[in-house]
Amino acid sequence: MTARGIAQVRPCARTDSLVVEELDGELLVYDLDRDKAHALNGPAATVWRHCDGVRTVADLGRLLAGGEGVEQGTELARNALVQLSRRHLLIEPFEDDQYVNRRDLMRKVAMAGALVLAVPVVKSIVAPTAAQASTCYPAGVLCSTGTQCCSGAVSKGCVSSCPCYPESASRRDARAAKGSGL
User: Fold this and answer.
1) Burial (CB count within 10 angstroms: exposed 0-12, middle 13-18, buried 19+), residue 80
2) Which of 54, 65, 81, 165 stands the most exposed, by the fewest C-beta atoms within 10 Å?
């Protein structure tokens, strides 16, 4: 699709199975279906919030540009839409044959003199499921760190594949007494 054709696309943000929270100027979006958390900076959040199926990519570019450097604003909006699409935050996939990575986009925008425009950024992490987050190894199982041992078990050194052993009540009491200064 040509740049002009892309400018007329009307993207729509996905809202189902998402938990959205604003925090410190970023929009945090947790995808319940994929167990992934995404942090959208200001420009990326603006694009996502305004993807209503009515506004075009060109309209989103004008929002980002604030009346200045509309061509660069549209390119930034296209960049944000590709990032949002790759993270499944749009209802329909958005593909752009002329996608420019963030570093090249920053260089291009700066050369055009549009230094006031911020580049949209979407950062993502995979969040562990509840079962993964609470998994620990019982006594006698090999582990690589002390944090892998279940409550009530301690690692003896736990340096690369040391077994986790249950902590005896007398040892636990001795550690507690030592920690309390008795």
Assistant:
1) buried
2) 54
- C-alpha–C-alpha distance, residues 172 and 57, integer Å: 63
**Residue labelled with tokens 């550690």:** 175
What does each C-alpha distance from 73 to 98, 99, 170 come to in angstroms? 15, 14, 67
Backbone angles phi, psi at 34, to 5 degrees: -110, 0
How far apart are alpha carbons 84 and 86 in whole angstroms?
6
Q: Tell the burial category of 157 from Cβ atoms under 10 Å away from its Cβ (0-12, 13-18, 19+).
A: exposed
Q: 21-66 pLDDT, tens per residue? A: 998 888 999 999 999 999 999 999 999 999 999 999 999 999 988 8
Helix/strand/coil for 13 = strand
Q: Please, are residues 12 and 93 in contact by the beta-carbon 8 Å criterion?
A: no
Look at residues 156, 139, 138, 155 and name the one whose alpha carbon lies nearest to residue 147: 155
pLDDT digits (tens, 9 = 90+) for 90-108: 999 998 776 666 666 666 6
- Between CA 169 and CA 182 the distance in angstroms is 17
Q: Tell me the pTM.
A: 0.63
How would you class 83 by CB atoms within 10 Å of its CB: exposed for 0-12, middle for 13-18, buried for 19 or more?
A: buried
